[in-house]
Structure prediction request, 308 residues.
Amino acid sequence: MRNLRLTRLFGVIVVSLACQAGGAAAAEDRAALPPSTTYSEGVKVCTECHDDEHATAIMSGPHGMAADPRTPAATKGCESCHGPGGEHARQEKKFRVAQTLEGHSEEDAAERAEVCMNCHGKTAQKHFLTSEHSRADVACSDCHDVHSRNDKVLNRVTQTEVCVDCHQDQKANMNKFSRHPIREGKVACTDCHNPHGAKGEHMLVEATTNETCYKCHAEKRGPFLFEHEPVQDDCSECHNPHGSVNDQLLTARPPFLCQQCHNDTRHPGTVYANANVASSNRAIGRGCTNCHTNVHGSNHPSGVTFRR
Ligand code: HEC
Ligand code: HEC
Ligand code: HEC
Ligand code: HEC
Ligand code: HEC
Ligand code: HEC
Ligand code: HEC
Ligand code: HEC
Ligand code: HEC
Ligand code: HEC
Prediction:
């Protein structure tokens, strides 16, 4: 409605005249207003003033499906999330809505999530409040842009942008020489992680790292006649799933990778250091995996040393 547009226009003028601190103070002033305690008569009351695209788009998405009795549209409308807004709608200058839901204020992250959990607490998000995210004061709306028609985090290709905004080290990893095809949208963070929380560690989608990898690299599960202990144990002993400067996502280059564990093998354990290297035509200039080609395990009757 014109009312709000005028208020906004006025706001812009005030802000452009005043210094930044003045603008911040204005937002704080609103937060200091008393919260409304009674509900209004529905969405239309709110959209009288909040008629811009950002505010109204939400009612054309899943939250606006009035035919579905579980949605905000079928219950308290805007106030399903924002809480009572009756006094605010009548006297916007003197009252605010009960829940503004904005910002990254650490104290209120759980409170902001609770609003959503009222409806989403029994579905895929049921572990959220005990997740690493919730415990680190990340709320639903720090990832989800519920008012937008295209919530970036719901799209596999744009999702990563949202995640690496906070996880800067994964952004660096993603651009390394060897990496999963995340930038291409073929693999997404959520193929391996459940950002809403999970039972296992690191919010992995499966109980362990290995089970997570087997989803796509099933051949590495075996069973093998001859197993290589660290492979069954934890793929990340040798691979960094987020990216590496070494070939094949390896945490180190062979022979160094292998030598972290195999120091005293009968033959050239330490290719570049041991006295027997000079006499060993096997090792010089070659990686361990030139001979030990099946490091993940072998089913060959004489594959005990993973060479076939
Ligand atoms: C008479 C006009 C008017 C009506 C009706 C109205 N609002 Fe507002 N609302 C405003 C103004 C003005 C602001 C403050 C600044 C801005 O948006 O730029 C505001 C701010 C808000 C904010 C931001 C947080 C805050 O309090 O500063 C939310 C959320 C909000 N309104 C929700 C609602 C909801 C939900 C309803 C319906 C119950 C509603 N509004 C009805 C005018 C109105
Ligand atoms: C599903 C929950 C939900 C519903 C329903 C909802 N909102 Fe919001 N709203 C939020 C969240 C979360 C934020 C803060 C962050 C953001 O913008 O996503 C917000 C922010 C806002 C803001 C402040 C940001 C701005 O644009 O200045 C306004 C105003 C607002 N909502 C108005 C409304 C109105 C009007 C409706 C009904 C047409 C509505 N909201 C329905 C969750 C909701
Ligand atoms: C009044 C109940 C209610 C509240 C409150 C609510 N939601 Fe929803 N939400 C639903 C329903 C119902 C759906 C659609 C069915 C479904 O996917 O479960 C939905 C769908 C969604 C979707 C999927 C959107 C899509 O495009 O597929 C997201 C994301 C979401 N909600 C996030 C939130 C967040 C974040 C909040 C809190 C700011 C919130 N919801 C608050 C009921 C609610
Ligand atoms: C760390 C970022 C992050 C946070 C925090 C987060 N989500 Fe999500 N959410 C996602 C991503 C990513 C997807 C897409 C999932 C996929 O592709 O498997 C998603 C999908 C959804 C969906 C649609 C699919 C489904 O599982 O039904 C809903 C609904 C949803 N989230 C609600 C919520 C609610 C409610 C909260 C807070 C309790 C929340 N989310 C917190 C990142 C987040
Ligand atoms: C191919 C699977 C996979 C993909 C894709 C993936 N991760 Fe991970 N992530 C893991 C595994 C496995 C661990 C546990 C690593 C360990 O034990 O060292 C982990 C650990 C983490 C950790 C905690 C430990 C650390 O290194 O800081 C964060 C944060 C993380 N991942 C974020 C992300 C983000 C953000 C994305 C998307 C850009 C992503 N991950 C994509 C598998 C994956
Ligand atoms: C608003 C900032 C923010 C966003 C956005 C965000 N995270 Fe996080 N995430 C955190 C914080 C803070 C922690 C807890 C501290 C840490 O381990 O870095 C965390 C923890 C994690 C962990 C667990 C780390 C562990 O050690 O167990 C994983 C996995 C993770 N995030 C993945 C994701 C994915 C995937 C996305 C995108 C869908 C995402 N995060 C989006 C802030 C964020
Ligand atoms: C969602 C499916 C998916 C999951 C889960 C997955 N990967 Fe991958 N992985 C891929 C794809 C796709 C490629 C690229 C294959 C190609 O380019 O031919 C790949 C490639 C690799 C490569 C070879 C990289 C190179 O440089 O050629 C390694 C090593 C690898 N993954 C390890 C892992 C580990 C370890 C895990 C578990 C933490 C894992 N992957 C989980 C899909 C997945
Ligand atoms: C002992 C170290 C080690 C462990 C543990 C390990 N890998 Fe590897 N992986 C390697 C090496 C070395 C290569 C490079 C292969 C070569 O040069 O022949 C490789 C290559 C790969 C490749 C790409 C080439 C191919 O064989 O498809 C994938 C995928 C892969 N590993 C997945 C996994 C998965 C999944 C796990 C856990 C089940 C795992 N790795 C555990 C050392 C390891
Ligand atoms: C995280 C530690 C670790 C890493 C890294 C590692 N291994 Fe192993 N490897 C083991 C363990 C443990 C065994 C089983 C115990 C044993 O027989 O020494 C084993 C067994 C073997 C065996 C069979 C020994 C036998 O007599 O049965 C070979 C061959 C082998 N590893 C080669 C390699 C190669 C090649 C690499 C590098 C690509 C490598 N390993 C990396 C821990 C590791
Ligand atoms: C030129 C081929 C070749 C290269 C290179 C090579 N190996 Fe071997 N390796 C063998 C052969 C052949 C055997 C089995 C012979 C034996 O039983 O003595 C073996 C046996 C082993 C064994 C099991 C025997 C034991 O001593 O426990 C381990 C462990 C091993 N190699 C690790 C490595 C590591 C680590 C590297 C890299 C630093 C490496 N190998 C490089 C050919 C090679």
Remarks:
- Residues 219 and 296 are 10 Å apart (CA to CA).
